[in-house]
């Protein structure tokens, strides 16, 4: 039974690596394991329990509203051009200090990815502005794309990322934290993740100097010089994308300036969306079209994120029914270091080869993270390491949607981009994992 389950899991990940539809693959694999488990155990409720796990995620009151409102808000910020003004406001100061241009671009993208948590979305929104800006500063196109791509894992500490509410929910059910508040998880992840991007960006800066691809590497003049100089930043529009994140921070239990229950993630995102609509009206944008963009973004969030979470839950239920989860937990109980390494290495490698670590990280968190106490760790530590490692692994994958978008903007080969992000990403996952287990 266990060997059959392990074979199914390996085939599942191989199919995801081959770019088969992840939601379908996870669902079918979960059902297959549940059917085998039901036949072996003679229990008529095994498949039903797996399906129930799927349905519960579709109506998860702590998860679904967060994801759909964050994705809707991000769509509105892109449509109203507020994200354009924020990016330009952050980039312009870099022109005065050439040495920090490459690491600064990575850190800026990382920070923006917290506000706009879709890696592909932030690649498109930021890449179309930041890559031309870097090229205007005479950075080689491939390094410009690498600098932006390196920052596309900032979403790991976003309230809208699927994993943080998931980890908070698991930790709350286990009695580890007082409420299922994703900000509690994020506050523990923030410093380790910040250390990771700092180290990664500095290594990329060193690579850019070694390869002579940083500021001043290109001698030709470009039209982007005039475009950047003529762009007029609207401070109000630049601030709006950050407002929901600011409200969430000051309403967190750790800060407590605003009532936490009132200023939830969906409420803060809707406040930001409303402000975006007001800006759109001022600039004569059709408010009906802005509303459509929010609804489309929210729908994409449910389609691309929520259903994937539900499929991962069904997959995890199938692993449990066939006995694989219990065997893995028993194996990991023997050594804390094994659990620590598995949490980081598994999702990281899966993300590298598939371009998306979501499936691996979700399955890991559903199946293994609830048992963190058996390994001498907290649920937040184990779950956070798995999801952060997945985000970083995606940032050195040549098949990730973000790198394909950025390589297209820069006119370079995606493989050349990830050659430059690989070493910084490996360093980031090591630093972040160590920091998470020692500081988290």
From TrEMBL:
<keyword id="KW-0472">Membrane</keyword>
<feature type="transmembrane region" description="Helical">
    <location>
        <begin position="231"/>
        <end position="251"/>
    </location>
</feature>
<feature type="transmembrane region" description="Helical">
    <location>
        <begin position="341"/>
        <end position="364"/>
    </location>
</feature>
<keyword id="KW-0812">Transmembrane</keyword>
<feature type="transmembrane region" description="Helical">
    <location>
        <begin position="143"/>
        <end position="163"/>
    </location>
</feature>
<feature type="transmembrane region" description="Helical">
    <location>
        <begin position="421"/>
        <end position="439"/>
    </location>
</feature>
<feature type="transmembrane region" description="Helical">
    <location>
        <begin position="28"/>
        <end position="51"/>
    </location>
</feature>
<comment type="similarity">
    <text>Belongs to the DcuC/DcuD transporter (TC 2.A.61) family.</text>
</comment>
<feature type="transmembrane region" description="Helical">
    <location>
        <begin position="58"/>
        <end position="79"/>
    </location>
</feature>
<dbReference type="GO" id="GO:0015556">
    <property type="term" value="F:C4-dicarboxylate transmembrane transporter activity"/>
</dbReference>
<dbReference type="InterPro" id="IPR018385">
    <property type="entry name" value="C4_dicarb_anaerob_car-like"/>
</dbReference>
<dbReference type="GO" id="GO:0005886">
    <property type="term" value="C:plasma membrane"/>
</dbReference>
<keyword id="KW-0813">Transport</keyword>
<feature type="transmembrane region" description="Helical">
    <location>
        <begin position="119"/>
        <end position="137"/>
    </location>
</feature>
<feature type="transmembrane region" description="Helical">
    <location>
        <begin position="91"/>
        <end position="112"/>
    </location>
</feature>
<feature type="transmembrane region" description="Helical">
    <location>
        <begin position="302"/>
        <end position="329"/>
    </location>
</feature>
<feature type="transmembrane region" description="Helical">
    <location>
        <begin position="190"/>
        <end position="211"/>
    </location>
</feature>
<dbReference type="Pfam" id="PF03606">
    <property type="entry name" value="DcuC"/>
</dbReference>
<keyword id="KW-1003">Cell membrane</keyword>
<protein>
    <submittedName>
        <fullName>C4-dicarboxylate ABC transporter</fullName>
    </submittedName>
</protein>
<keyword id="KW-1133">Transmembrane helix</keyword>
<feature type="transmembrane region" description="Helical">
    <location>
        <begin position="384"/>
        <end position="409"/>
    </location>
</feature>
<dbReference type="InterPro" id="IPR004669">
    <property type="entry name" value="C4_dicarb_anaerob_car"/>
</dbReference>
<feature type="transmembrane region" description="Helical">
    <location>
        <begin position="263"/>
        <end position="282"/>
    </location>
</feature>
């Amino acid at each position: 039974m266990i060997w059959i389950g392990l074979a199914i899991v390996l085939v599942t990940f191989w199919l995801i690596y081959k770019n088969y539809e992840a939601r379908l693959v996870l669902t079918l694999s979960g059902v297959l394991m549940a059917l085998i488990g039901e036949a072996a155990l003679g229990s008529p409720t095994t498949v039903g329990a797996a399906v129930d796990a799927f349905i519960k995620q579709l109506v998860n009151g702590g998860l679904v509203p967060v994801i759909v409102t964050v994705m809707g808000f991000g769509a509105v910020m892109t449509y109203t051009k507020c994200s354009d003004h924020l990016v330009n406001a952050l980039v312009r100061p870099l022109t005065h200090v050439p040495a920090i241009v490459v690491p600064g671009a990575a850190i800026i993208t990382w920070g923006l990815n917290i506000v706009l948590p879709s890696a592909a979305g932030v690649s498109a929104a930021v890449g179309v502005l930041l890559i031309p800006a870097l090229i205007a500063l005479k950075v080689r196109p491939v390094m410009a794309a690498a600098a932006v791509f390196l920052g596309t894992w900032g979403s790991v500490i976003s309230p809208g990322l699927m994993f943080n509410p998931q980890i908070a929910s698991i930790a709350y059910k286990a009695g580890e934290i007082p409420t299922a508040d994703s900000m509690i998880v994020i506050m523990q992840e923030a410093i380790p993740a910040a250390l990771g991007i700092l180290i990664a960006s500095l290594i990329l800066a060193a690579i850019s100097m070694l390869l002579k691809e940083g500021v001043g590497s290109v001698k030709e003049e470009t039209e982007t010089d005039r475009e950047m100089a003529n762009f007029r930043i609207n401070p109000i529009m630049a601030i709006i994308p950050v407002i929901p994140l600011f409200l969430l921070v000051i309403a967190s239990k750790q800060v407590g300036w605003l009532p936490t229950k009132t200023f939830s993630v969906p409420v803060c995102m809707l406040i930001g969306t409303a402000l975006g609509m007001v800006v759109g009206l001022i600039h004569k944008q059709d408010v009906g079209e802005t509303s459509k963009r929010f609804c489309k973004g929210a729908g994409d969030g449910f389609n691309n994120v929520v259903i994937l979470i539900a499929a991962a839950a069904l997959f995890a239920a199938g692993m449990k029914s066939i006995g694989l989860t219990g065997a893995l937990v028993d194996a990991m109980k023997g050594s804390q270091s094994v659990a620590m390494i598995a949490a980081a290495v598994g999702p990281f490698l899966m993300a590298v080869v598939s371009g998306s670590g979501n499936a691996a990280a979700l399955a890991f968190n559903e199946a293994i993270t609830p048992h963190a106490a058996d390994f001498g760790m907290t649920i937040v530590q184990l779950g956070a390491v798995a999801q952060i490692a997945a985000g970083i692994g995606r940032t050195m994958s040549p098949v990730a949607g973000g790198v394909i978008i950025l390589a297209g903007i820069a006119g370079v080969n995606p493989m050349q981009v990830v050659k430059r992000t690989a070493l910084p990403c490996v360093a980031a996952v090591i630093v972040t994992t160590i920091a998470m287990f020692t500081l988290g």
